[in-house]
Amino acid sequence: MKNIEQLQDDPPLRAVRAFEAFARLGSVTRAGAELDITPSAISHQLQLLESFVQTPLTLRQGRTLVLTDEGRDYYRSISAAFSVLRSATGIVRSRMAPRQVSISLIPLFGMGWFIPRLSGFLAANEDVDVNVLYANHRNYHSDASDLSIRFGASDWPGYTRTKLLSGEVVPVCSPAFLAKHGPIKRAADLAGLPLVHDEDRATWGAWLHRYGVTNVGHAGHVNPAIGPLFEDGQLTLSAARAGMGVALLREPLIARELASGELVKLLDAPLDDGRDYYLCTRSGTELPDGARRLAEWIQEEMKRGEAGS
């Protein structure tokens, strides 16, 4: 009975913190230095946590302490929570300075659209400092930023949202890939070619169906269920640039790569996958002046891009 009650209790937070530091840094010594405690204290906290969860999270290989499979799974689960804690704490601290504006976004939008344009906003708003954070959690329940750029089907209770970018994706690849596997003039030419997948494998299947490639899954033809799967668009973009295969990506977010020739748009064959980019703010909360200006600038920049396309 005691064990059951123990499992129902909250975990020992000091021990969880020590485990997270060890798993992230890969060293008892470095974890101790970060938390300003001794390595032996870190080891003690790890043992305490293992006793609580009743399974080994670490094992010793020679003189080195490493994670078990259960330890790796546990770290993946708690690392997101620690990321939220650090982000939220940083935002609260930054609000002591009225110049600070925080915005969270996913990497592809940040690197492909936001950051290349941000200097223009900062030049026109020298009294505002912008803190850019990763939105690591697709359910977005823990977002504490002033503004957030979200990707999905717009189902976020408690938030006001403005659509920024549609869900249209197009097939792209690297010039080297095209030289090796081309020419590609129609959808059927993708038969047998490597595909790379962004977040799920369903989008390629929908694109192939949309453009009449129905003989999928057979020998010598496209099989949308295989090929490497990447967690987000930035990783998918890197894979396409590296020549791993054909990817489905949004043109406005890869404009630099298309203009420079790093990527080639294969076909004028878009597919709306039903997931869009939105600018979101918390409902019923008045934005600080700097955040309001940044939100207005983002919308104007997006409209300017649409008018120029």
TrEMBL record:
Pfam families: HTH_1 (PF00126), LysR_substrate (PF03466)
The organism's place on the tree of life at top rank: Bacteria
Keywords associated with the record: DNA-binding, Transcription, Transcription regulation
GO molecular function: DNA-binding transcription factor activity; sequence-specific DNA binding
One example of a Gene Ontology biological process annotation: DNA-templated transcription
InterPro entries, A to Z: LysR-type_TF_proteobact-type, LysR_HTH_N, LysR_subst-bd, WH-like_DNA-bd_sf, WH_DNA-bd_sf
Residue ranges of every copy of the HTH lysR-type domain listed in the record: 11-68
Similarity annotation: Belongs to the LysR transcriptional regulatory family.
Name used for this protein in its record: LysR family transcriptional regulator
Source organism: Paraburkholderia acidisoli
Organism lineage: Bacteria, Pseudomonadati, Pseudomonadota, Betaproteobacteria, Burkholderiales
